[in-house]
Amino acid sequence: MTDLSDVRREYTQGGLRRADLAAEPMAQFERWMAQAKDAPLTDPTAMVVATVDETGQPFQRIVLLKRFDQQGFVFFTNLESRKAQQIAVNAKVSLLFPWHPLERQVAVTGVAEALSATEVFKYFVSRPKDSQIAAWVSKQSSKLSARQALESKFAEMKAKFAKGEVPLPKFWGGYRIVPSSVEFWQGGEHRLHDRFLYSRTDDGWEINRLAP
């Protein structure tokens, strides 16, 4: 067994106080995202997306956040992927933004809602052409015999769409995670971390400090 108990450090970049918080979680998230982008962090929009299959087995993967607003957090994916299949069974999803260099993390629970065809198309046409082609190539989460098969398919599709626009695949779409709770975590000295949980209520949002 490899003992990792001595791998530790103090969190010293500063605390988080109730008076510092915005009244709504998306406004607070916007502040922290801006600071993460300015830091700058590598891939500040990277988030862990956790879904659950029909047996109750959770699975996580990193996905890039593409948009957020008062309605929720938006990402795009292959609709035949494992995450999409699991969302079809159980739309409850968890997100985690691990901003370690800032000694921060944001944890979200919510429900995934499929985006409209208009929203999906608008984003798809904004992607670089090679990324559009890649969406056609990969049957996400399926077994693959070798990487060469993937590269050959990409070359084939690139030649096919060389002189025209790349159409939106029917199997490509996106989701909006409508949050029911958002937790902001700021590391603190002596493991006395600051945690604030926004919970959705009938009247808006309730904010509570949680023990570290």
UniProtKB/TrEMBL annotation:
<feature type="binding site">
    <location>
        <position position="66"/>
    </location>
    <ligand>
        <name>substrate</name>
    </ligand>
</feature>
<feature type="binding site">
    <location>
        <begin position="61"/>
        <end position="66"/>
    </location>
    <ligand>
        <name>FMN</name>
    </ligand>
</feature>
<feature type="binding site">
    <location>
        <position position="105"/>
    </location>
    <ligand>
        <name>FMN</name>
    </ligand>
</feature>
<dbReference type="Pfam" id="PF10590">
    <property type="entry name" value="PNP_phzG_C"/>
</dbReference>
<feature type="domain" description="Pyridoxamine 5'-phosphate oxidase N-terminal">
    <location>
        <begin position="38"/>
        <end position="159"/>
    </location>
</feature>
<dbReference type="Pfam" id="PF01243">
    <property type="entry name" value="PNPOx_N"/>
</dbReference>
<comment type="similarity">
    <text>Belongs to the pyridoxamine 5'-phosphate oxidase family.</text>
</comment>
<comment type="pathway">
    <text>Cofactor metabolism; pyridoxal 5'-phosphate salvage; pyridoxal 5'-phosphate from pyridoxine 5'-phosphate: step 1/1.</text>
</comment>
<feature type="domain" description="Pyridoxine 5'-phosphate oxidase dimerisation C-terminal">
    <location>
        <begin position="172"/>
        <end position="212"/>
    </location>
</feature>
<dbReference type="GO" id="GO:0010181">
    <property type="term" value="F:FMN binding"/>
</dbReference>
<keyword id="KW-0285">Flavoprotein</keyword>
<feature type="binding site">
    <location>
        <begin position="191"/>
        <end position="193"/>
    </location>
    <ligand>
        <name>substrate</name>
    </ligand>
</feature>
<dbReference type="InterPro" id="IPR019576">
    <property type="entry name" value="Pyridoxamine_oxidase_dimer_C"/>
</dbReference>
<comment type="function">
    <text>Catalyzes the oxidation of either pyridoxine 5'-phosphate (PNP) or pyridoxamine 5'-phosphate (PMP) into pyridoxal 5'-phosphate (PLP).</text>
</comment>
<feature type="binding site">
    <location>
        <position position="82"/>
    </location>
    <ligand>
        <name>FMN</name>
    </ligand>
</feature>
<feature type="binding site">
    <location>
        <position position="127"/>
    </location>
    <ligand>
        <name>substrate</name>
    </ligand>
</feature>
<dbReference type="InterPro" id="IPR012349">
    <property type="entry name" value="Split_barrel_FMN-bd"/>
</dbReference>
<feature type="binding site">
    <location>
        <position position="83"/>
    </location>
    <ligand>
        <name>FMN</name>
    </ligand>
</feature>
<comment type="pathway">
    <text>Cofactor metabolism; pyridoxal 5'-phosphate salvage; pyridoxal 5'-phosphate from pyridoxamine 5'-phosphate: step 1/1.</text>
</comment>
<feature type="binding site">
    <location>
        <position position="131"/>
    </location>
    <ligand>
        <name>substrate</name>
    </ligand>
</feature>
<dbReference type="InterPro" id="IPR000659">
    <property type="entry name" value="Pyridox_Oxase"/>
</dbReference>
<keyword id="KW-0664">Pyridoxine biosynthesis</keyword>
<keyword id="KW-0560">Oxidoreductase</keyword>
<feature type="binding site">
    <location>
        <begin position="140"/>
        <end position="141"/>
    </location>
    <ligand>
        <name>FMN</name>
    </ligand>
</feature>
<feature type="binding site">
    <location>
        <position position="195"/>
    </location>
    <ligand>
        <name>FMN</name>
    </ligand>
</feature>
<protein>
    <recommendedName>
        <fullName>Pyridoxine/pyridoxamine 5'-phosphate oxidase</fullName>
        <ecNumber>1.4.3.5</ecNumber>
    </recommendedName>
</protein>
<comment type="subunit">
    <text>Homodimer.</text>
</comment>
<feature type="binding site">
    <location>
        <position position="185"/>
    </location>
    <ligand>
        <name>FMN</name>
    </ligand>
</feature>
<dbReference type="InterPro" id="IPR011576">
    <property type="entry name" value="Pyridox_Oxase_N"/>
</dbReference>
<feature type="binding site">
    <location>
        <position position="123"/>
    </location>
    <ligand>
        <name>substrate</name>
    </ligand>
</feature>
<dbReference type="GO" id="GO:0008615">
    <property type="term" value="P:pyridoxine biosynthetic process"/>
</dbReference>
<dbReference type="GO" id="GO:0004733">
    <property type="term" value="F:pyridoxamine phosphate oxidase activity"/>
</dbReference>
<dbReference type="InterPro" id="IPR019740">
    <property type="entry name" value="Pyridox_Oxase_CS"/>
</dbReference>
<feature type="binding site">
    <location>
        <begin position="76"/>
        <end position="77"/>
    </location>
    <ligand>
        <name>FMN</name>
    </ligand>
</feature>
<feature type="binding site">
    <location>
        <begin position="8"/>
        <end position="11"/>
    </location>
    <ligand>
        <name>substrate</name>
    </ligand>
</feature>
<keyword id="KW-0288">FMN</keyword>
